[in-house]
Amino acid sequence: MNFKQEKTYVMIKPDGVKKGLIGEVISRFEQRDLKIVALEMFMPTRTEIDNHYPKDEAWISRLGGKTLSTYEKYGLDAKKELGTNDALKLGKMVRGWLVDYMISAPLVRMVVEGVHAVDMVRKIAGATLPFLADMGTIRGDFSNDSPAVANAEKRAVMNIVHASETPEEAKHEIEFWFGKRKVIFDYKRMGE
Ligand code: ADP
Questions:
Q1: Cα separation of 130 and 125, whole Å?
Q2: Was domain 1-14+25-43+107-149+159-180 assigned CATH 3.90.1150.10?
Q3: 3-class DSSP state for residue 85?
Q4: Residue pLDDT, tens place only, 123-136
Q5: How many angstroms separate the alpha carbon of residue 128 from the centre of ligand 1?
Q6: pLDDT band at 44, cuts 50/70/90?
Q7: Is 146 in the pocket of ligand 1 (CB under 6 A)?
Q8: What is the DSSP letter of 45?
Q9: Radius of gyration of the CA atoms of the chain, in A
Q10: Is the whole-model pTM more than 0.85?
């Protein structure tokens, strides 16, 4: 394992593209000595996005669980507002909204390389839910969305970027989105 040349997968989501944050997101990675080794704007298909996000029940329940805990925190009744307080059912609903959101505008996909790229990029991106993300992170600085607001509007939380969570997930997502096309480059930055 080479931690200096670890690669991770990042997508700028529709809200990031539509807020004009493509350059900002890229520069936040570059400022931290991370290297962009592949970059492309594209329009995803519904099937691609559906296959990108996990389909196992554990992942889907965790997604619904985030809605549940935010609703509990703010004294909202998920059953009354969304028809159920079952984490799996809520997760399936949220996953559907997520797919709709991800195909609502072109995305920017990239491979980012560098020291602990997976963890570094997640740190720079910030926590999943923007209203809880630290200031100084992409999600904390450019979004204030929360499940309580998003789910009331029957949509996914808009949080600017997607970034792989583990090196295994990064490998899988890079292969999934870039496949065998020779568009991942090998070069040295000044000073490397
Ligand atoms: P991350 O993108 O940080 O890895 P997850 O894998 O948990 O986060 O969730 C995938 C995406 O689903 C999030 O980035 C966000 O856009 C959306 N999302 C997560 N939780 C919720 C929720 N409770 N309600 C609506 N959308 C959500």
A1: 10
A2: no
A3: coil
A4: 999 999 999 999 99
A5: 6
A6: very high
A7: no
A8: -
A9: 17
A10: yes
